[in-house]
Write a structure and sequence with these properties.
The protein is mainly beta. It folds into 2 domains: 1-31, no CATH class; 42-155, Sandwich (Hypothetical Protein Tm1070, Chain: A), CATH 2.60.290.11. It is 11% helix and 40% strand. Strands 4-3-7-1-10 form a 5-stranded antiparallel beta sheet, with no helix packed on it. It has a 5-stranded mixed beta sheet with strand order 6-5-2-8-9, with no helix packed on it. Strand 3 and strand 4 (83-91) form a beta hairpin. It is globular, with a radius of gyration of 22 Å. The model is unreliable at 14-31 (pLDDT under 50).
């Protein structure tokens, strides 16, 4: 009787696809559905310490691991909570976009200058998928070599199976 049960268990294990056998993949119900530009935006990062003055700009760099074009929105708020400006840009599949509060010589920004100068505050980065990863830094906009400080970012809505 034991041999028969063992043989049945082996037959079932061999018949199941690899994803169903490996607990790292989870069930298909746990995996995120593909998103698209038309999907609602979700907040994925909050970035405190955003600055824009004559000698300081904030630069955001975001990379999409999605297989379809997605949408990114960068909203900057002043220290009093009022909105200073926003930029909304498409990000093609598996590509990187750089957005700055002003043009810099060290980066080629997809969008820049969307906020008033002389501000400090917080930025919110939203996307149509959680499959986007970003970084932010304060830089001197004049030199052609980046010279600045990395900003700490708070992740919201993490992509399943990742840690930041």
């Amino acid at each position: 009787m034991r041999v028969r049960r063992w043989m049945m268990a082996a037959a079932v294990a061999l018949a199941l696809p690899v994803q169903a056998q490996d607990p790292r993949y989870g069930s298909t119900a746990q995996q995120p559905a593909p998103q698209a530009v038309s999907d609602p935006l979700k907040v994925i990062y909050r970035v405190p310490g955003v600055r824009d003055t004559a000698g300081i700009a904030t630069v955001f760099s975001c990379t999409s691991n999605s297989s379809v074009e997605e949408l990114l929105k960068f909203t900057v708020r002043k220290d009093d909570g009022s909105e200073a400006g926003f930029a909304q840009i498409p990000i093609p599949a598996r590509s990187t976009r750089v957005v700055g509060t002003r043009d810099t010589n060290a980066f080629t920004e997809t969008a820049s200058g969307f906020v008033a100068t002389d501000l400090q505050g917080i930025a919110t980065i939203s996307a149509s998928t959680t499959n986007v990863f970003c970084s932010a830094m304060l830089v001197d906009p004049t030199p052609t070599t980046p010279n600045g400080i990395a900003l700490h970012m708070v992740r919201f809505n993490p992509h399943p199976g990742t840690e930041e």
